[in-house]
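hiii, so i know i said id send this last week but things got crazy w the move. better late than never?? heres the sequnce for the chain we talked about at the cafe, plus the structure i predicted for it. fair warning i was half asleep when i ran it
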Amino acid sequence: MVSQLSQLSQASQVVVGADVHKHSHTFVAVDETGKKLGQLTVRADSTGHDKAVRWAQAQFGAAGDSGDGCGDGCGDGCGAGIRWGIEDCRHLSARLEIDLLEAGQHVVRVPPKLMAEQRRTARTRGKSDPIDALAVARAVLREPDLPVAAHDEASRELKLLVDHRDDLVAQRTQVVNRFRWHLHRIDPTVDPAPASLNRAKTRRCMAELLADRSGIDARLARELLTDIETLTARVNTLKTEIAALVAVQAPALLELEGCGTLTAAKIVGETAGITRFPHEAKYAMHAGVAPIPVWSGRTAGRVRVNRSGNRQLNAALHRIAVTQIRLGGLGKAYYDKRLAAGDSTTEALRCLKRRLARVVFNTLKNNPSTATATGLAAAA
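okay and structure toks below
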């Protein structure tokens, strides 16, 4: 059986689909026709991931011993001819993706909706880890233009910092809301705006107001005010750190009108290496700003807003678009041009976001700092 699989892998490409879970990963290999070749279940840790790589290389003809399988003489057992498809499940698939890339494997990300569609059309009934992994592998065969995973430490660091700051901001918002309810029970006439409690001056005024108050509400309000102070300091420290990284990695983005420090950091972090997108149209589809056709018969040319794609990246482009419309300039001029052509406000905004995706793509593509960071991460 092993000999037959090795002979098969010499003549065709093998795709390994992965169904990821917190404690285990299941892999199913298929040939270029979608025929199942084998399966393996491992623990969801680096040891299990290494076992999966060695299994694929041994069974499906990786160039581990000959050193010439990838065609460039790397001699590092990179597993040429094998593609790994991973269902894009964020935290569940992140560690597996990193380990596979460090092992020199070719990895693509499969949106969950593609896997679900493939499973619905399969002849096999039911749901199991091998069935899901098989659906992932066949989705890779059906969709040759899936986004390629890239191990870009620079953008990954920014993404983690921005996500952590977002979590702290959300936590601070919850504390602020609780504080305002206690304050309302103490004195209904005092009602500071939620955003004002982010400022030190407002917090000092609230502390003075509560200093001579007694009762459980006053006590809890003082404790919550201290929590707000601590969280605000951490949020501000993170923002300073993020600003320093963005200034080094993507200074050209900061020159784009309407793109602030946090928005630029969100774009770099969610893009995860601009070089993995062959052209700007694929980047626009990844960002969820490419138009979706909805025409039939005599209603040719109609499109609607794209609800898929990376919603964080979409939100960042939306913030830039709205800011440009408010401030004026080229973005406002283009928006007004679309309105004059008969577009609705929603359609004009969509067109502006699509245009901004092209601008952002070219800015990152031509930014020497971004290219250098990506190259260093790949070399590492």
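btw Confidence is low (pLDDT under 50) at residues 1-11, 62-79, 371-380. thought thatd interest u
miss u guys!!
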